[in-house]
Amino acid sequence: MNALSALFIRDLRLAVRVGGGGGIGVLFFLIVVVLMPFAIGPDLALLARIGPALLWLGALLATLLTLERLFSIDQEDGSLDLLLMADTPLELAVAAKAAAHWLTTGLPLVIATPLFGLFMNLNGHASAAVALTLLAGTPALTFIGVIGAALSVALRRGGLLLAVLVLPLTVPVLIFGVSASNAAIVGPLPFGTPFTILCALSLFSLVIGTFAAAAALRHGLE
Amino acid sequence: MRLEASGLVCVRGGREVFSGLGFALSGGEALLVTGRNGSGKSSLLRMIAGLVRLSGGRLGLSGGDAERSIPEQVHYLGHQDALKPTLTVTENLGFWTRYLGGSQPPEQALATVGLAGLGGLPAAYLSAGQRRRLSMARLLAVQRPIWLLDEPTSALDSDAQQILAGAMKQHLQGGGLILAATHGPIGLDGARELRLGAAQ
Q1: For A185-210, what is each residue's pLDDT tens digit?
Q2: Chain B contacts of A85, Cβ < 8 Å?
Q3: pTM for the whole structure
Q4: Which CATH architecture has domain B2-195?
Q5: Quick check: B86 and A85 CB within 8 A?
């Protein structure tokens, strides 16, 4: 436990220090959200209707953008070797790193959502609904993304491979995230059903993602 | 404690680097792994550290902690220093000490390697030799019976080489094992030599 908290705190520190990329996710999210109304035009009713979907897409892309370096930076400086050798199970180390990543990237997105909802002409109730679905859904994005981050290290290909591998896997999260938001805003479907599935997807990927990423990292040994 | 290897085969990228390699090393002994570039010195060390798969052969440790695998009882000092440039010297060492299960406060190990006054400095500002000293401090801060050192003296000045030699001597006296890949003398008297690539 001591070892895991050390890793968690180290990754938090790295994210908030200069060049750590902690704020990059939110900035990217902001840019996506600001650009959309310019592209779509000043149709307020349309913006409000597609707003939740656009916020979700922005969050998805911002998460992926920052996940890419999660393991490759440890591989480049030799830290990954020591993490692989240590007696702390690699699965737990992956989970600690992913949790630190979510706290510095996913959670700021959730906190920024009520503000960014204004750009999409969402009222307070709608913004809160989207923020709530993002709070439940962004852990799924992070923990699915770590599989791609680990694979891109194992296969020694960075960048786009992560997006190509991970984006298809995030489709269910996107579907239930957006449908839960829409259910809360316009109805007529109940909010509870898609939201519960969204929570299940997060819990599911929490387990699958850590084990799959650890397996990929081990397989990446020469 | 005894580390034994027999018939080790290493294949990398489809090319056989070495085969039929064997050695036995008991507590208090050191083995210098030498050989020309590409003869598999680093691969052998990484193999013992569990970072390169055994393509054949057997690797066994007797007399160690039976509950822990060989990599868990090994310190691996590779070409990379496993340091984060934005963390301070103390934070870097403190993290690895905690992660690897050491109990010693980082300050003591830092003083031994001559970085006592630099604890608050981000690692980005360290020179290559100072980075090397900092990763050496990891060996002192956490107790591990087997040291795998890959070119340990590279970038070290004569002062630091003496500190390293002293640390290695102390480690051997305490019953530890050292395997070092090297091209030159690293200040280990009476160490045996394993020459790779000599047979070809």
Answers
A1: 887 788 888 899 999 999 999 999 99
A2: 49-51, 71-72, 74, 76
A3: 0.89
A4: 3-Layer(aba) Sandwich (3.40)
A5: no
